[in-house]
């Protein structure tokens, strides 16, 4: 018997959840939503050790306080209080686990990847992850400390 795509997705989700511990994060301005949980996998301790050449799974559970046709992610590396844009493969929230349009009062699981390129310097910094609605208002914003390492 061949498993259904839904069964495979649920199994993968359960496996990812088993490896991911909810992180302690700083909410940095969630206005149009409220964060329920942030997971980065693998990240067993904080600060998260991000190994060059590795991709990390991001899962943010949040509740929306507004209606929005779409959403867009922006990710930064924060050093000395300066935000340096950090490219991610898929900035469109509607292609990252969120069923759009976003409905007021509904909870969503935002899923994305954080690739750590080999050419990044070995450094401690803060990862700042924002998701904005179609009015450029903050659905969520969170920060965690990380250390990029070889």
Descriptive notes:
The structure is a single chain. With 150 residues, the protein is mostly beta strands. 10% of the residues lie in helices and 47% in strands. The chain has 1 helix and 9 strands; from the N terminus they run H-E-E-E-E-E-E-E-E-E. The model is unreliable at 1-19 (pLDDT under 50). One of its GO terms (biological process) is cholesterol efflux. Belongs to the NPC2 family. It comes from Picathartes gymnocephalus.
Query: How are helices and strands ordered from N to C?
Result: HEEEEEEEEE
Based on Cα principal axes, name the global outline: elongated
- What kind of oligomer do you see? single chain
Roughly how many Å is the radius of gyration? 16 Å
Query: Unreliable stretches, pLDDT < 50, 5 or more residues?
Result: 1-19
CATH topology: Immunoglobulin-like
Q: For this structure, what is the CATH class?
A: Mainly Beta
Strand content: over 45%
- Secondary structure: number of strands: 9
Largest sheet: 6 strands, mixed
Tell me which CATH architecture applies here. Sandwich
N/C terminus separation:
42 Å
Structure classification: mainly beta
């Amino acid at each position: 018997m061949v498993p259904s795509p839904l069964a495979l997705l649920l199994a993968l989700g359960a496996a990812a959840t088993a490896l991911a511990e909810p992180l302690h994060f700083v909410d940095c301005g969630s206005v149009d939503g409220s964060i329920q949980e942030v997971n980065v996998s693998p990240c067993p301790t904080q600060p998260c050790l991000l190994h060059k050449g590795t991709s990390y799974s991001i899962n943010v559970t949040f509740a929306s306080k507004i209606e929005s046709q779409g959403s867009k992610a922006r990710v930064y590396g924060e050093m000395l209080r300066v935000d340096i844009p950090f490219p991610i493969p898929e900035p469109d929230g509607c292609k990252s686990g969120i069923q759009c349009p976003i409905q007021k009062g509904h909870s969503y699981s935002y899923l994305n990847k954080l690739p750590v390129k080999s050419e990044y310097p070995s450094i401690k910094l803060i990862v700042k992850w924002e998701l904005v609605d179609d009015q450029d208002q903050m659905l969520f914003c969170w920060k965690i400390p990380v250390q990029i390492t070889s």
